Automatic annotation (TrEMBL):
CDD domains: GIY-YIG_SLX1_like
Species this protein is from: Candidatus Giovannonibacteria bacterium GW2011_GWB1_47_6b
Domain (GIY-YIG): residue spans on this chain: 1-77
Lineage: Bacteria, Candidatus Giovannoniibacteriota
Protein name in UniProt: GIY-YIG domain-containing protein
Database matches in Gene3D superfamilies: GIY-YIG endonuclease (3.40.1440.10)
Pfam families: GIY-YIG
Length: 87
């Protein structure tokens, strides 16, 4: 299984989107500073995940989350978190 994950920086409240086959290991790498792209924004918590059968599906979905449509949906998810309901 592969996962698309959205991390939320507790430092600046911004998100990071990626994919992996092991979410907990990947989160640990982000929080340890091993990932150059997120090193300065630690610590992170998992905000949202999706599961896929293949790496290709996960990569495609990661790209969608990084698109204009995906970012629009992410804003909706944030709104849901604010009122206690994940949409």
């Amino acid at each position: 299984m592969y996962y698309v994950y959205i991390l939320l920086s507790e430092k600046d409240q911004r998100t990071y989107v990626g994919y992996t086959h092991n979410i907990q290991e990947r989160l640990a790498r982000h929080n340890s500073g091993s990932v150059m792209a997120t090193k300065h924004r630690r610590p992170f918590k998992i905000f949202y995940t999706e599961e896929f059968e293949t790496m290709t599906e996960a990569k495609d979905r990661e790209l969608w989350w990084k698109s204009t449509s995906g970012r629009r949906k992410l804003k909706e998810l944030f709104k849901g978190k604010e009122d206690g309901i994940l949409r």
